[in-house]
């Protein structure tokens, strides 16, 4: 299936860039552009989840516990990105969500680097 992380890394990097662009467009008052970018970000959420699931199912036998934790943390990061965008559009508080997002994003990044399939191994 999927034995390299290139597609997965590319999709989540693009998703984060688009997430930031959508937030900046909303803050600038460009609602129509923000809504379009938000829809594109949602497409990239799906791509991130699909590529992550393919990596999980084809490589979980290497270290099932760590891959399972990475899958869960990665899903939570995607959910938090969407919650932050929606709550920002609805003018509701996002402070706690940002804190959770940063913590879980760093955890997902650390676990992803720690996994044997990761592109770098700075923690070995």
Can you walk through the features of this model?
This protein has 124 residues and is mostly helical. 78% of the residues lie in helices and 0% in strands. The chain has one domain (6-114). The longest helix has 29 residues, at 31-59. It is found in: Cell membrane.
Report the mean per-residue pLDDT as an integer: 90
Give the distance, in angstroms, between the N- and C-terminal Cα atoms. Answer: 26 Å
> How much helix is in the residues?
over 70%
pLDDT < 50 stretches: none
Number of strands: 0
Number of domains: 1
Largest sheet: none
Strand content: under 5%
Written as H for each helix and E for each strand, in order along the chain, the element string is: HHHH
Query: What's the number of helices?
Result: 4
Rounded to an integer in angstroms, the radius of gyration calculated over CA atoms is 15 Å
Briefly note the structural class of the backbone. Answer: mainly alpha
Shape category: elongated
């Amino acid at each position: 299936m999927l034995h390299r992380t290139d597609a997965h890394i590319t999709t989540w990097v693009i998703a984060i860039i688009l997430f930031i662009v959508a937030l900046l467009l909303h803050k600038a008052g460009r609602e129509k552009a923000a809504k379009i970018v938000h829809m594109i970000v949602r497409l990239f959420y799906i791509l991130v989840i699909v590529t992550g699931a393919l990596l999980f199912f084809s490589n979980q036998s290497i270290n099932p516990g760590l891959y399972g934790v990475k899958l869960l943390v990665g899903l939570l990061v995607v959910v938090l990105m969407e919650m932050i965008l929606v709550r920002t559009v609805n003018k509701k508080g996002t402070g706690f969500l940002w804190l959770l997002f940063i913590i879980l994003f760093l955890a997902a990044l650390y676990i992803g680097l720690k996994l044997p399939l990761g592109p770098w191994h700075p923690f070995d």
